[in-house]
Queue: 4 jobs
Job 1
Amino acid sequence: MSDDIKRAAAAALVDEQVRQGQAAQMQAKLTEMERQHQERHSAEDIEAELLQQATDTYADLNKQRSEVEAAFVEVLDGVRDLKKQVERGALNPEEARDALVRLRREYVTLTNKGGALADQLGRAEAIKNDPAAHREALMAKYPGLRR
C-alpha cells in the first residue's frame, strides 16, 4: 500500500504542478492583456495629444497666414503708391529705386514665409485629419515611444 500512497502523492504533486503552470499561464495572459490595454490607452492619449497640438498649431498658423496676407496687401499698396508718386514726379529716380528695392525685399521675405507657412499648414492639417497615422509614423521613427 505504500506504493499506492506514493503513486497517489506523486499524482497529486503532478496535478498541483499542472495547476500552478496553468495559473502561471493565466497570470501571463492577464499581464499581457493589461499591457495591451495600457498600450491602447497610451496610444489613444498620444493621438488625443497630437490632435490637440495639431489643432492649436493649425489655428496659430492660420493667424500667421492672415498676417502675411495683410503684409502682402501693404506691399502691393506700397507699390501702387510708389507708382503714383513716380508718375507725379514726387520722387527722384534714386529714391524710387531705393523704395522699390525695399518693397521687393519685403515681397521676397513674405513669399518665403508664406511658402513655409503653407507647408506647415499642410502637415498640421494632415495630423488633424489622421492623428493615428502620425502616431504610428512617430512610433516607427522613435521606437522608444512604444511601451
Note: The mean pLDDT is 80.
Job 2
Amino acid sequence: MVCSQLRVGNNTTITCYDSSGTSTYHLSEPAPVNPAAPYEKDQQLAPGLYFLLPRTTWGGVLPKGSPVYTTPGQPAGTIITPSGKIRGVPVPAGPHVAGPEKRSEGCPLFPRTKAGRKQQKEFYRHFKENINTGGTLIYILDPLSIEKI
C-alpha cells in the first residue's frame, strides 16, 4: 500500500492506494514545530518518506502490531530526525485516536469520536491487510514547510 499524508497546519489527510482502491482518512496533528529545531522529539514528523511497520513491543495508545512511522532501514518505530537524532524509541509515533487531553507527541490523531474510532479501525485493518503484500509506504507532504526542508 502506498499512502500520502498531506499536512496543512494542524490538519492532515492520509490517502492510501492499493489493489482494493483508494481510502482517505482525516486526522489532526496538534504537536508543535519549533522553528529553531524543527521536527525533533515531541514535534510533528518531518516531511519525507517513511514505512509504516507493526509495533513490535507492547505500549499504551499504540499497542503491539499498531502501525508506527519508521525511517527506511531502521527497526520498527525508529525515526531519524533531520538533525540526525533518533526519536521513537522507546515510544514510537503512529496514528491513533486522540486521548482526553487531545495533545500529541508527534502522532497524527483520529478524532476522539465514534466516527474517529471507526476511521482508526478501518485504517488499522487496511494496514494489516497489506503487511504481507509489500507493506505500507507513506510520504508526508507539508506545503507550508517546503522552504524549511
Note: The longest strand covers residues 11-18.
Job 3
Amino acid sequence: MNQKATVKDGSISLQSGADMNFNLGLSFENCERFFDILFKANFPKLEIIAAQAAEENVSKLVFSTYKKLEERVELLELSKLAEPDVQHTFNTATQAAAKKGNKIDLNLLSELLQARLEKENDDYIDQCIEAAVEVIPKLTNELLSALAVIHFVQNLTIDNINELEGLATAMQTRFLNTCNNISLSKLSMIAGTGAGSYANVMGSNTFKEYLDRRYPNITIKGEDKFPNLSRFLNSYDRLSLHKLSLNTVGQVIALKMLNKIFGNLPLKSCLV
C-alpha cells in the first residue's frame, strides 16, 4: 500500500500498490492488511488496553468478511476496493467494529461489505448498502430481528404455499422470539435511525389480510389450516409491528437477516 489520501467526511482513500493488488485475486493477507490500514488511520492514539480490545474487534470483522468474500468471490469485483466510496463504507464498518465489537452484528456487517463489491450492483443498490452499513451499529439484535419479521410479513410472498407453516415456525424461532417484547418506543427509534417510518395507526387481523392479499387463490384460509402462521401473525399484531414500514435501507438490512433462513436473497429483485 503506497498511498494514502484523506477525502471528505473523514474517510480514507487508499490506492492499491504492488504489495496489495486485488486485481490478482483474493487473499486473507490482503484483506487483513486493508482493514489494518483503516484501523490505524482511525485510531492512532488509543490506550494500550483499549487498543487491544479494538484490534480484537476488528480482527473478528476481518475473518468474517474474508469468509464472505471467499464464498462468493466469483460474483465480486475486488477492484472496487480502490474506489473512495467503497473504502468509505469499509471504513465506516471498521470504526463500528472497533468501537462496539460483539455489541453489533459483525456477521451482518460482513454480509453488507461483501454485497457492496458485487459485480451486478447498480448505483442505487450501492447507495442502499452504504446507508445500511451506517445504520447497523445503531441497532441491537432485538431491533434487527424486528426488521426481519416486518419485511417477511409486509413484503415477501412465498412461491410454495406448503412451505408457509415451516417458515412461520422458523421466523418465530429465529427472529420473533428475539423481539417478543419490543416496545412502541423502540419501533419509533428504528425509524429514527433511517431504516423506516413509524405511524401510530390502528391494526387489524393480519392473518386474514395476509392470506387474502398474498395468496388470494387459497380456498381454505382458517387458522386451523395454518396454526403456526396464525400464532406468528397474532404475535405480530400483539407487538403492533404494522406501525413500522421499512424503507429501502431497512429492507436491505432485513433481507440480509433473512438470509439465515432463505439463503442468499438477491437485493436487486427483492427490494420493493
Note: The longest strand covers residues 3-6.
Job 4
Amino acid sequence: MKRADKRTDYVLLEARTGSEWDCCAFVVIKITDGWLRQLQERYDRLEPFKDDLSFSGHSYFDSPEGYYNPPDGWEVDELLEQGEVWTFVETDEEELSRLPVPENALDTHMMVLDKYGNARFTAYGKYTGEEFFTEDFNVMHILKGSSHDTGN
C-alpha cells in the first residue's frame, strides 16, 4: 500500500475500537463513481436540516471495504502526514485480502453523516457488541478529491 497525492480508487481512514482484546487501526474505502454519486446524494439530503439545532445526523447501512490492522513492518502513521486522518492510497483487492483483520466478526455496518457534512463508519462485533469506528472525515474533501482534512 502506497500513499497517493491525487484521487485513487481507495481511501485509507484511521479507525479504532473500544475493545479490550481486539484491535483495529484503519479502514479502506473503495471509491467508485456509484459510491461518489450516492455520497453526493446523501450530502444533498442534509440541506433541509442544516439549521435544525436538534438534528444530529442521518445513518445509513454502509461499510468500507474492510476494517484492518497493519501487517508487520509498517504503521498507518507512515502513510498519513501529521494531523491527517485519511489519505488516498494505491492498493488492490489482492493486497487488501492479505491484510490482518480484527478477530471480531463485524456486523451492523453504518455510515453516519452529520449536518456539517462530516461522516464516520461504525460496526459492531457480532457476538461481543464491541464498537469499531473511524475518525470523522469531511465528505466534500472526498467528493472533490482534493486536500486532506484533520477530522475537524
Note: The mean pLDDT is 92.
